[in-house]
Amino acid sequence: MTHPQGALAGIRVLDISRILGGPYCGQILGDHGADVLKVEPPQGDDTRTWGPPFKDGVASYYHGLNRNKRVQHLDFSTEEGREALLALVAEADVLIENFKTGTMERWGIGYEALSARFPRLVWCRVSGFGADGPLGALPGYDAAVQAMTGIMSINGEADGGPLRVGLPVVDMVTGLNAVIGVLLALQERQRSGRGQFVEAALYDSGLSLLHPHAANWFMDGTAPRRTGNAHPNIYPYDALATGTDPVFVAVGNDRQFASLCRCIGLPGLADDPLYRTAGARSVHRAGLKQQLEAAMAAFDGRALVEQLMAAGVPAAPVLPVDAALQHPHTAHREMVVEMEGGYRGIGAPVKLSRTPASYRHAPLTPGERFLPESATSASAS
Prior knowledge:
Blueprint: E1 12-15, H1 21-31, E2 35-40, E3 54-55, E4 58-59, H2 60-63, E5 69-73, H3 79-89, E6 94-97, H4 103-106, H5 111-115, E7 122-127, H6 142-148, H7 169-192, E8 197-201, H8 202-208, H9 213-220, E9 237-240, E10 247-250, H10 254-263, H11 278-283, H12 285-296, H13 301-310, E11 315-317, H14 321-325, H15 328-332, E12 336-339, E13 343-346, E14 365-366, H16 373-379
GO molecular function, one term: succinyl-CoA:(R)-benzylsuccinate CoA-transferase activity
Protein name: Succinyl-CoA:(R)-benzylsuccinate CoA-transferase subunit BbsF
InterPro entries: CoA-transferase_III_domain, CoA-Trfase_fam_III, CoA-Trfase_III_dom3_sf, CoA-Trfase_III_dom_1_sf
């Protein structure tokens, strides 16, 4: 099977990271054509055990983060392992790692030791808190960083307690930030001929997610509070009950609000002074929600969503994960990937017209070196 040449074809990535942020970064680069070699410790990446479910003893968690890579094992605590790593670094454009700060330095293979020897190398570190400062060098974990950066405090029902977001949002955004950093550094290298050190920290990434709560606090100093499914600044932007299933309505302007009111049989509500403007609707949201849900009780939720969308009102059914993954539009957008051996995973969300993502190596594909240039070109053409 041949594949279109990816945007990063010819770029060689050495992924020595584990768990989530670093491997996710490596997978994205691999999806877009980079030759990614993942080097794991002798016992493998910790996430191989993060199940169930398992396939051939390896957890689904690992499979979801490590396609488009070839895998080998080295022990960097040994001289032989370090020498093998240096030989691989000599061939690489990008190195991704997330060792605890100071670990690679103690082994004599940290960035400062290697940057002069490999001046074109882009070294990407995914860390918890960075190397210095009050929390510097401490290990970071997604849920703990959600707690420390305020994310948990604004997530959950208004009358409930702080709640972890139900997916590793900080880890995943840190992986995305790592990708951005790598691409920025590769772009700059074209100008200077030199690589550089790139860092994406979970703590920084967690704080970066606080919009609009941080912007609100910067402006008026009021502490953000939990609002459940509702948006803190605009309304109705909330899950609303119907006669059957709840639907999510995302009204962002006065025209959409007027259309919503007409669809549910309350055309005069859009002219009520309490709800005429976005700011007024946000202030008087409790009374507005009661009126909307009273009218929507006469509607079937799925049918109402179709009616609202046809009228230009953003709305959606509240679907479980399995239904979302099996939705016809998910298939149309090629967001479920299938590969030989029974692998299925989430597809690349960034679509490029001439150099689309491709899926070449299922997780656990073995490999000891980078592919020869001829093989790299052939696999991506």
